[in-house]
Amino acid sequence: MRALRSAGPIFLVLAVLLVLIAVANPFFLEPAGFLAFVKRAAPLVILAAGQYFVIVSGEFDLSVGSLVTVQVVVAARLIEGDEAATWPVLALLLALGLLVGLVNGVITTGLRVPSFITTLGMMLVLSGAVFLWTGGAPRGALSETFRMFGRKDLGPVPWSVLILLVVGTAAILLMRSDFGKRLIATGDNERAAALSGVRVGRTRVLAFVVSGLAAAVAGILLGGFAGVSAQVGQGLEFQAITAVVLGGVVLGGGRGSVVAAMAGAFTLEALFTLLNLHGISGALEYAVQGVIIIAAVAAGAVRLPLRRAARV
Amino acid sequence: MLLAAGCASDKPAATGATSAASTAASASAPVATTSSGTGEQSKFFVQADFDAQLGMRAQTPEGPEGKPWEQAIAPGEKADTAKYKKDGPYHLCFSNAAVNNPWRQVGWKTMQAEVALHKEIAKFTALDAEGKDDKQISDIAELVGKGCDALIVSPNTTATLTPAVTGACPKVPVIVFDRGVDTDCPVTFINPIGGYAFGADGAEFLVEKVPAGGKVLALRILPGVDVLETRWSAAKVVFDKSRLDVVGVEFTDGDAAKTKSIVSDYIQRNGKLDGVWMDAGATAVAAVEAFEDAGQPVPAIVGEDQQDFLQKWKEGGLTAVAPTYPTYQWRTPVIAALKILKGEEVPKTWKLPQPKITSESLDTYLQPNMPPLHYALCGCEDLPGFPAKWGGK
């Protein structure tokens, strides 16, 4: 109950947005219409969940957007439309996400490079590598099986919604485990956590690994949803961070719940959908995101002294 | 914020009757007025250029049959090249704006293959500006100092590159292609007919295929880029004169996921759409998939000559058209450079044919052995190394 209260504002905003969408587009109230919205939001929600782990531990992950692009471009090049290659490539993509997260984490904690710099560097390295490899024009094609996860349904429910349920549940369980408590302790007060026996470095590395894996899953869903593109991940890192902040998670770490972070992603996606339904496009999305990020952080700072310890 | 957003939206209401009526009213109005569906006319719109380009589509080009990259539409004034005549072997230089999209990738490969055809080109120096004006300005200065016999430029942006090209003209014969510059000092400027013809080809197709009052969604990549602005401004003129209801004009950033989301939203909001116009076909497949995923028939749609779209068109038996901005234009500057260095005449403004792909000619351009993002009008099939060099099998 207390968890719900602390994350209350974001659910209220989300509810208002959903009502506004339903007014503009009655089809939204039908199961198919609503599921289509959840399906479209799924990659961002998963990314936001991953980003939450890093942010609550007191760090940032700016590399997830370009990691998503890498996933899609690499998948297309390796699969070349061959169904048989789908599963090995999927495994490879998850391993790649894990590896990038591991490198981010080890550099940040081991070499004491601020994560802002580590992951910014990783973002540039990855987007540079994609550009070098493709020259801006991705080659190859994704297989039908690969695209199934982002595009097709299992019965009445889209695959991406099911995957989102699994990932969301896993994220909640992870935050309720000892690891989650250590993670929040690390983000809240690194020294206190270390003195009470938390292996701070190892905990943060794991947070980056979770974020890398989330980016891999999001990449698989996005590639499936829309096909091959060299721009697929552009700006996603900022959307994910905006979503997490919107969910009331405090930048700097230690406070906020993963459920609220995911709700933040839904809210952002709902906002984009609403803007789109009213024929307001493109450039305004960035402006809106900017306003949100500033307003949410300002609002968080104002209420900070009243906040209780973070909840899952 | 949201309230303001709601008010700012001047899109026609969802009720079909009123918006159809407003479109019908605007159909009788002069071309220059704005209809509620298509918004203000672009400040890039020039009526004379629009008329000229639409006229060029019907003209028969001069030049060898089957080699559109050597043809010229209404060549008019010829550049005198006697003063550039010199003996080979030659050193050609090329300042490229970028190779950052599939269209430029295909073009760049085609140009390299054209260079390889000519033994008299002893050296070919190319610098890639990576989409940056400042880099291209220094690239051009560097190439001019390298003793090139001729300099080919594909400018990144028009206004910013003009002084750099003007500076190079007195030192070396300059050939500009693809996008233009604001000076006539280059020996020749080569490109296909242009954006107005491209935009009108797509819009006229929809006017023909979609019944009166039908709902059309227009998708654009970005605002403010001249070649794209002219495409849309031509389409706007055509739509304003028609009885179609343009229910939205949206920017996609060329992003497939965003395109798919936008189209899905419009399908949900309007119940269905009767046509989709695009200023470039790179995301056409995503738009088609939005209809497939919504369980709706794909309406009349405008794409481009990319293989993935042509494939989709063929498989789905779509009602479609593909205006093109042919990549074979990358062959022409090399041919022009050699003509100039041999003292042969070239057109001052060299306009290449700009065909559109229709359902009749679809089979000619569909090449299942080529990669999904290959552009069919590369004119590269007869070049050495085809298809492997272009990623084909």
UniProtKB/TrEMBL annotation, chain A:
CDD domains: TM_PBP1_transp_AraH_like. It is a multi-pass membrane protein. Keywords: Cell inner membrane, Cell membrane, Membrane, Transmembrane, Transmembrane helix, Transport. The chain crosses the membrane at residues 85-104, 116-136, 156-175, 205-226, 232-251, 258-280, 286-306. It is found in: Cell membrane. GO terms for molecular function: transmembrane transporter activity. InterPro entries: ABC_transp_permease. Its main location: membrane. GO terms for cellular component: plasma membrane. It comes from the Bacteria. This is Autoinducer 2 import system permease protein LsrD. It comes from Streptosporangium album.
